[in-house]
């Protein structure tokens, strides 16, 4: 026993001195806080008179059924990646939307706005979609502008 105890005895360890004042919380608290900017206020609170901002979900689709009273069925098409092939495929989903004036017909483009539940399946309100001016009007303007600029009539206009 005395042999093993003499082998296990180690020389006394010297105490280590820490040169970094930040180790083990030895620095004052003021050095550890973030620097404050003169432009930002310490606690910016939103004004109490404004209501909280909530994101409203809007979708756009085509009316596929308008036979029910005050209800239209709207088909929304979106592009999503295929889970295996990673190619973008069209995904369709039908939503029931509230149409209080029965003004939408089959084929109309409408925008769906999220609202409180109106019935078991209706949680959207159908509103008219803003018209698209980019593709249809620019191509018609380009067709009209080109013959006038060149001064040559189209073949369909020649007799």
From TrEMBL:
Keywords: Chloroplast, Plastid, Ribonucleoprotein, Ribosomal protein, RNA-binding, rRNA-binding, Transit peptide. InterPro entries: NA-bd_OB-fold, Ribosomal_uS17, Ribosomal_uS17_bact/chlr, Ribosomal_uS17_CS. Its main location: plastid. Residues 121-159 are annotated as: Disordered. It comes from the Eukaryota. Pfam families: Ribosomal_S17. GO terms for biological process: translation. GO terms for cellular component: chloroplast; ribonucleoprotein complex; ribosome. One of its GO terms (molecular function) is rRNA binding. PROSITE patterns: RIBOSOMAL_S17. It is found in: Plastid, Chloroplast. Gene3D superfamilies: Nucleic acid-binding proteins. NCBIfam families: PRK05610.1. This is Small ribosomal subunit protein uS17c. The lineage of its organism: Eukaryota, Viridiplantae, Streptophyta, Embryophyta, Tracheophyta.
